[in-house]
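Subject: Sanity check before I submit

Could someone independently write out the structure tokens for this chain? I want to compare against mine line by line before I put it in a report. The sequence has 276 residues.
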Amino acid sequence: MHTLPVVLTIAGSDNSAGAGIQADLKTMGALGVYGVTAITCVVAEVPGKVSAIHLVDPGVVAEQIRLIFEAFPVAAVKTGMLHSLEIINIVADMLERTAGTPRPPLVVDPVMVATSGARLLKTDALTGYRTRLFRSAALVTPNLDEVGVLWGRPVHLRGEMVEAGHALVAEYGTAFLVKGGHLKGNVAADVLVSPDGSEEWFEAPFVRGVATHGTGCTYSAAIAAGLGRGLPMSVAVRQAKRYLSRVVAGYLRWERSGANTDALHHFAQGSDPDQA
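---
Independent answer below. Compare away.
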């Protein structure tokens, strides 16, 4: 008999399998945990294009979460695309009711806009993040565009990333990983700001010439996998950063009708979680 830590992802389904639930499951499998899911919406997309979003009935989302906690000892949870205020509230309600005490650590990826530019969060849904999920999270993982929305000011420099991180930590009382992958330069740098006031940077070479999606989903899923394995937050983020860098650098590419389609290679160079 074998057992693995169980990690729940609550997110949308991406039919191209580069982002969303599909990316989360591949990441979790590569990093040595058993991924389980609650699907919030079905998205018709490929890298660079989102053509349709269909919300799952909130009652079905709630039932998925209830059954998972009834059957499995969930060691960590991450949220991805939730899309609507109703879904955010349902998710928050169900985690409060079913996750037990102490609750497993929650990683919130506040998915707002796709890499293609398509809006993935309804306007009124932001209040659900602010009033419910952020305050329950162990970690929130916004990219620079999302930080700009949450902080109310654009972020273009490393110093602004730190300033925004401290402001958000002070407001919500939880750790924030401000992801700087969109900064200009040759290094993809992120800063983890913790409630104790500490800051820690995580850096990797920026990989150019890759037009894919799902990096945010993969990163947050990898962090949740590390937390589910019992790693401290800093170590979980460091291993997740290494893993993300590997799957970006080892990207997959297909050519069709003269155009390329890229995807992250979630199983590039082995899958030993301690070598992530």
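---
OP: Matches mine. For the report I'm noting this point. DSSP finds eight helices and eleven strands in the chain.
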